[in-house]
Input
Amino acid sequence: MSAIVTGGTSGLGLEIASLLRARGRRVITVSRRETADVAGDASKRETALRAIEAAGDADLLVNCAGVGIYGPAGSYDDAAIATMIASNLLATIVFCELLAPRFKEEGGTIVNVLSTAALTGKPNETVYCAAKWGARGYTEALRAEAKGTKLRVISAAPGGMRTPFWPDARESFMDPKEVAAVIVDAIDRRVNVAELVITRT
Output
């Protein structure tokens, strides 16, 4: 079977895609980068449809696309707000809406990568938190809807990682390889894992 990983050409998404491949899965990556298997805006239905067609028999979706623009409330223009909502919320919804019905019937797993910003409000992250809280709400509702079906829904909320997402990554930030291993292990476990919060101990 195959997997679709959005945001799969850099950072955590790249590490998840690499680990899935190492464990024998065929992976279709989606991102704006030309190096992706499917290059395009993950928030657009057309991109999602191309990825689903390329994946064929996909039974795993990992929504890892995201972007961060930070600053105090009042500093965001319309373009920044639209970019944040599209990348962090709409992309997750679009892919889930297309694959959830099939996964309910035939079986499949959806992993929505959120952030600790989906759990608590943070200064200078108002719009990012809003988008991630929206993604968390969608994920929790989808999980409730999936009860009694063959669809499994996992949310993963990692803290800061040493990836290009954070150009000024702190020494205390996590290695994305370690975070990817936690997420992929949860996917492979036969026991039900619904929610992951991944932070440095």
Remarks:
- The mean pLDDT is 92.
- Residues 78-106 form the longest helix (29 residues).
- The beta strands are 2-6, 26-31, 38-39, 58-63, 108-113, 151-158, 195-198.
- The CA atoms of residues 132 and 167 lie 20 Å apart.
